[in-house]
Amino acid sequence: MAEGNHSTVSEFVLLGLCDSWELQIFFFILILAVYLVTVLGNAFIVILVITDSHLHSPMYFLLANLSFVDLWLSSVTCPKMITDFLKENKTISFGGCMCQILFVHFIGGGEMVLLVAMAYDRYVAICKPLHYTNIMSQRTCIWLVMTSWTIGFVHAMSEFVVIVKLPFCGPTAVNSFFCDIPLVIELACIDTYSLGIWMNSDSGSLVITCFILLLISYTYILFTVCHYSKDGASKALFTCTAHITVVVLFFGPCIFIYVWPLNITSLDKFVAVFYLVITPLLNPAIYTFRNKEMKISLRRFTSQYVNSRWN
What we know:
Elements: E1 11-14, H1 21-51, H2 58-84, E2 91-93, H3 94-127, H4 132-135, H5 138-163, E3 173-174, H6 181-184, H7 193-228, H8 230-258, H9 265-290, H10 292-310
Parallel strand pairs: 1-3
Antiparallel strand pairs: 1-2
């Protein structure tokens, strides 16, 4: 029982992705494999950027931070979802549910701002190459990362302090595999229609603002390069394609869940799987396999490891 909000609910029931036992076993194996690769892939990128002096530049500093964020974003929901596939009764404590809400929006909001910071880095590198070193100094990079974490924290807390005080007295069934604001506030014992609109507006404003800034940044980059050099345009397009791909894959599901007016629960659940499970896996794959310097660094790391094993 949570005395602060006078709730009589001590736990919630997560309905999960599906009811079929065969499908749950299939999803257990699939998502477990995806999660393990996600953790290893993102952790490896962080280690690679830290240990390889050739990658000590603003772009890879921000990339390492993105991998760090993705590692934690997937870890907020995946372990619980994976273990629940093997349980008949999928429950989560009241405190655990509130923690999922807090950290999903904290880390997710921070990642959105971090992607904007990465777009700014590419803008300076491509549109103002002569001033890149001065503009993207170590201090600037740290400031950008700290800003992303701060905005994510403020965004999450602005919603958390409201929802944690809501009275919950039943029902307790959350029609998803994790606790998210739109689903949990529907279970409150008061009329939450206006509150739901405000919550979605709060999340939606952050999503849309970051998405528009990203579109403007990459459009301006490509327009500027096309204006001066057609060869440069192809290079800029290749450089930005990975970033644009991540933006679309991450923001598309978020816009669908928090901005799209229609509420299609079954579809929302699988869209949530995409941005909480699949996108953190795709980020290291996209940046690693499409980036020449990352490929060279990977080969260098592998050769050094092999040599150290044989010597």
